[in-house]
Write a structure and sequence with these properties.
Order of helices and strands: EEHEEEHHEEEHHEEEEHHHHHH
Number of strands: 12
Low-confidence stretches: 1-23
Number of helices: 11
CATH architecture of the largest domain: Orthogonal Bundle
Helix content: 25-40%
CATH class of the largest domain: Mainly Alpha
CATH superfamily of the largest domain: Transferase(Phosphotransferase) domain 1
CATH topology of the largest domain: Transferase(Phosphotransferase), domain 1
Shape: globular
Strand order of the largest sheet: 3-4-5-7-6
Largest sheet: 5 strands, antiparallel
Mean pLDDT: 84
Number of domains: 2
Distance between the termini: 24 Å
Strand content: 15-25%
Radius of gyration: 21 Å
């Protein structure tokens, strides 16, 4: 790509020389990855001297919209590194009494480092907004891909691949005493090479005991213990993996109903109807995750080694 040529993100790109890092990079590192490492190192040195401001970024197209703000494509001017810039309006946080939630989100998310979790690099603020500088996942929300898939559902091989990556990321979270509490296709992103990235840790909580009572998340994904207002632990995420797998394969969540009351009743009764086209292996995995008693839910390490996940994941072929 030549100087000032437009890249696939719709922004002009300038080539730039970088000095060597003060540590050795792997010899087999691809040129693109090496260049990115050099850029990030240079940016890190610069940030030691001064904090980010909005003037440090070129702002591109909107990527998504949430309750308190929007996410934009952004490029850091000095290194030309592409990010997703999440903007949160302070006035909206104050109206909803949600300031503490954003503080918690930053504290939790910034400490997580896993290949299937979106990286939160840093944050800054002005008089009106808070900005989170996030890793950019080029293919966007998984929900949009699900909606555009044939019959609005994924193949079993693709579903198994995604479930493996989600379960691996959540297992890492649980090892670090973090419960996500809002797993759903809208909060999962895809990279250009088709890897899962968990995002949106706004409802996440870090608790050494992994015991909570707050009801939160998305209606169709709520586990029975939340619906019944009982104390819960990290197994709420395991339940969500089961709901997610069902939605991947069927196109709708298993407990979706016309009214909230009907949905609640189905959740508490674990009233799951499996379509005839779903394989026995997929049913087995989902049924072992959608257990009313949290202690009976399949542990995430066993999701990773489940026969259906392993066999179907092996047959997946990237486009």
């Amino acid at each position: 790509m030549t100087s000032n040529e437009e890249d696939r993100n719709g922004m002009a790109h300038n080539d730039e020389d970088f000095s060597e890092l003060p540590f050795k990079l792997p010899d087999n590192l691809p040129p693109e990855a090496r260049a990115q490492a050099l850029k990030m190192y240079k940016m890190a040195l610069e940030r030691k001297r001064k904090p980010f401001t909005l003037k440090d970024f070129e702002i591109g197209k909107p990527l998504g919209r949430g309750k308190f703000g929007r996410v934009y494509l952004a490029r850091e001017k000095q290194t030309h590194t592409i990010f997703a810039l999440k903007t949160i309006f302070k006035s909206e946080l104050q109206k909803g009494n949600m300031e503490h939630q954003v503080i918690r989100e930053v504290e939790i998310h910034s400490r997580l480092n896993h290949p299937n979790i979106i990286s939160l690099f840093t944050y800054f603020a002005d008089d009106r907004r808070i900005f989170l500088v996030l890793e950019y996942a080029g293919k966007g929300e998984l929900y949009k891909h699900l909606q555009s898939a044939p019959y609005k559902r994924f193949s079993e091989s693709l579903s198994a691949k995604y479930i493996y990556e989600v379960a691996d990321a959540l297992h890492y979270c649980h090892l670090n005493k973090v419960i996500h509490r809002d797993i759903k296709p809208e909060n999962i992103l895809l990279t250009y090479d088709g890897r899962i990235k968990l995002s949106d840790f706004g409802w996440s909580v870090h608790t050494p005991s992994l015991k909570r009572k707050t009801m939160c998340g998305t209606l169709d994904y709520l586990p029975p213990e939340m619906v019944l207002n009982k104390p819960y632990n990290e197994c709420v995420d395991n339940w969500c993996v089961g709901v997610l797998c069902y939605e991947f394969l069927v196109g709708v969540p298993p407990f979706e109903s016309k009214t909230n009351d009907e949905t609640f009743k189905k959740i508490c009764a674990v009233d799951v109807r499996y379509p005839a086209f779903m394989s026995t292996g997929a049913k087995d995995l989902i049924s072992k995750l959608l257990q009313k008693n949290p202690l009976n839910r399949l542990p995430l390490p066993q999701v990773l080694t489940h026969d259906w996940v392993i066999s179907k994941k092996k047959t997946f072929k990237a486009d």
